[in-house]
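OP here, attaching both records as promised.
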Amino acid sequence: MLSVGFIADRIGRKRGSIMTASIMFVGAVLLTASDAPTINGLFLMFVIVQAIYGVGVGGEYPVASSSASERANSFKSLRNFRGRTVVLVFSNQGLGNLVNTAIILALMAITGQHGPKYSARAIEIVWRVQYAIITAVIGFMLLWRIFGLKENPHFRKRSGQASGFGGRKMNVLLGHFSSRIWASSITWFVNDFAFYGNKLFQGVFIKIINPHANLIQVLEWTLLNSFIAYLGYLLAAYHIDKPWMGRMRLQSLGFLMSFILFICCGAAYHQLIHPANIHWFQALYYLASFFAQYGPNCTTWLIAGELIPTDARAMAHGWAAAVGKVGAIVAGVVLGQISDQNKFIVSAITGLVGFVITFIFVPDTTSLDLMQLDLYWDKLMAGNGQDYHGEAVNPKNLSLWERMLGRGKLYDLAAHAAQLKGVEMTNTGHGNGNAEGINKSMA
């Protein structure tokens, strides 16, 4: 996430996406073909190969989000549905979880693995075929990116400015956008702490519902959870661009509902695990899974790619995503040391922290044209950020914290229009792309 995000801002979105797909393809081939004379050797091989595959998957986060948001922003037909476009890209992660679980279930049934006495040979067939299917999909994706994908127009316009990233750019980025980077990183951290933490201990929860569940039954419950989560992805995509919802409200709603649902599970834990109440427990848990998707799991992936100008977008997204995965690692350690009841209470606290940080530090970029953010960045880089008066400093596009800093006072639509008119006149006959694009978006 860190390295590929940094590289993708320099080599471009197309080359970055080819790079991540190539790494994933190599990793998927090795996963399918991995073997060793002993089970410990096979496990070691899997650890190494998963690390290789993980570099591709991690790098896909900043590249895919940045590319999707910029591509949508480049086309008039998609500009008002930028959030939907990006979230639908991300929703394929949820679809992958759903389809993968269904494939494993089908393969288990085909090979006759129904009870606790499993055949090692049959299980090997299951996971090799599963990975072979994944490898084929990634192979198709790689070929399409090489021969069918074109560099998105938005990044292409900025490629000259984004080619280098020296100390000056880093100082401006951290000096002016640090609160956005911090907010997108910490909200991702607390979301992944709760999301992946509870995913890691999903088997424990299923055992509470059904103490005698075998592997097939655990997979069936997992399939149901994946389906509910996928509905959350789709509903988030549908509502993310609505003026009455937007990014910040949806993320706040998801965090708040996670807090309420998990605190209910924790506070009434001993009553809920009673056989007479187990279905209430089940409903609360699956609702929490729904609101994780219909909220912060989708919005953190989207917002991290919209808060920062194009020149540093993938790198900043990579930072936030990497911090998020640190949250997942910490969850695996912390939640493994506490009781099942306290797992829900700690997860509830992370939801509350996410809600507070979102409310104070996360701006709502639902209606913001990304070109405006780039124009603001250019002014900042030139040392005259105070001369920018456009939509990037419109109070409705700023966080509460940024409004408290007084950045919204720069907003003056008439002055901004006069500046753009001056730029257009200066560039008459030379087709200034940025000015033309901004004038069209303002119209």
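Record two, same layout:
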Amino acid sequence: MGKKLGNDYRLWIESATPGTFNEIKGGTSLKINRTSNLIDTSTKDDFPYGTQAPGLKALTIDSEIYPNLPDANGYTKLEAAAAGSAPVGFQIRKGGSGGLEADVVFEASMYVGNFNTDMGKNDVVKCDFQLTLAAAPTTDTLA
């Protein structure tokens, strides 16, 4: 039985041409977080245990990259999106850097937040950031 490999999944950002995406080069980690608020459904009759139902879901994507320049269509676009306040289209494609449109396993309009850059002495420049949903995903086969 084969294993899923993290190296196969890459983050892509929508270019200035709507519907066209470019890989953000230099990716080192990609983590999708799914959480749900709880709705308390318990009553006094349920003592000693309460009951809950899942509420609205939240989804964030945390990523770290070592910018691999020049990358005007990936990293530069990401930097601009982090400095702005408008959502941008993102995709996760399975298939490494050669990922095709058919390899899209996740796509959504997202905000870039918590954009951090670490420029340590004698070290590669590292950037980590968090993406948050601006709208429900249009593709999500990773759920």
